[in-house]
Amino acid sequence: MHFTTMAKPTGSLCNMNCSYCYYLHADSSQDSGTLCMSDDVLEAYIRSCCEACEGDEISFTWHGGEPTLAGIPFFEKAVALQKKYLPSGRHTVNAIQTNGLLIDDAWCRFFRDNHFEIGLSIDGTRMIHDMYRSDAGGADTYGKVRNALYCLEKHGIRPDLLCTVTAETAASARAVYDTLKNYHTGWIQFIPIVRRGEDGSVTEDSVTPQAYGRFLKTIFREWIGHDLGKVNVQLFAETALMLAGKPATVCWLAETCGNILIVEKDGSVFACDHFVDRDHRLGNLCTTPLRKLAESPFQKQFGENKKNLCRSCRECPWLPLCYGCCPKDRFSVNEDGEKQYYLCEGMKMYFEEAVPALKAAMEMSTQGKSQKEIMRHFLRK
Q1: Each residue of 227-244: pLDDT tens digit?
Q2: Which of 94, 98, 133, 145 is exposed most, by the fewest CB atoms within 10 A?
Q3: Which positions ≥6 away from 293 have C-beta within 8 Å?
């Protein structure tokens, strides 16, 4: 079984207080009482990854909370341990997801010198970002995040931009997309926000299925008419990949899930970053090898459970492109009384718009058409 890990060196600790953050409310029963992963747990984690992971590349993804709160010395130790335990003939890749508040020249030099891949969270326009993403004291953060982006670029680092899609974001699709693409980083991910209150109802800041579909369609039309080959949008790239007959690289679009394990700061390992709770705790890597946890019957069943689909999903023509999407959000009850993905209608709207266009673009590419010619074709349409 191929698997990767996502480590949270400071657990859910963060210097921001985003209103939609699900990590802030994750079960903290696994916390060790320390603010950061200990040296012993860090060494056990890296050793276990190097022993377990297959292939030439061993990847480490650092998440949170906010992982930069662990400090540069923590990551210097991590890189040194990776070199210590790296098997001959293989190499490591480090990726970190950050809110950007602590990013300065020192961090950028460390990232550059150690070839870290950076994901930077920024919610499009200043107004929308500051509406949802305040710091721990309630202050606006857009200016600091934008400065972090400029600092990274000054050091030759082009971060991936991660933007959440809330109700407010969805209503401002063009403004959000234009703002992000004009940072010229080349890669954008849009992550829909779906939250439920204690009574099970969807919160007001969550994007609705219809609004999500309109959002994706608006951005797709702009992208294929103006930015093909210049900007990568994760969902569009994944759709094209699957249309070419290749498997999805992101878990929520894959046929099964469960191959991205979450490592908490005390070494506890969980089935998924959306299921950090007692029921989905696999064990602790300090006492059980990561591969054994990844290949446990519980985790295998967790991954296979993604195939438990309602009738409308099984009969849907778009099934090979989404496989029912993320199980976390399969709570919408359809006309048959079965549960399905809450944003299903929005995804259908997107596929109906994007799939014919992507197929046509791929066909024109095989005919030798340039990207400019392909974009002109869609602009005329």
Answers
A1: 999 999 999 999 999 999
A2: 94
A3: 261, 269, 282, 283, 285, 299
Distant-in-sequence, close-in-space partners of 372: CB < 8 Å, separation ≥ 6:
none
Q: What pLDDT digit, counting tens, does each position of 71-87 carry?
A: 999 999 999 999 999 99
Percentage above 70 pLDDT, the chain: 97
* Mean pLDDT rounded to a whole number for the chain: 94
* Integer Cα distance of 296 and 333 in angstroms: 31
Q: Which of 160, 162, 207 is nearest to 349 (CA)?
A: 207
For position 55, what pLDDT does the model report? 82
Helix (H) or strand (E) holding 270, with range, is strand 268-270
pLDDT given for residue 25 in this prediction: 54
**Residue 205 annotated among the catalytic residues of the structure:** no
Report the alpha-carbon distance of residue 5 to residue 53 in Å, rounded.
10
Contacts for 82 with CB less than 8 Å, ≥ 6 apart? 46, 50, 58, 60, 92, 94
Among the listed residues 104, 199, 273, 279, the single catalytic one is: 273
User: How much is the pLDDT for 228?
Assistant: 96
Dihedral sign, CA of 205, 206, 211, 212?
positive
The whole-angstrom separation of Cα 98 and Cα 149 is 11
Is the confidence at residue 94, as pLDDT, over 50?
yes
Burial of 256 (0-12, 13-18, 19+ CB in 10 A): middle
Strand partners, 98: 120
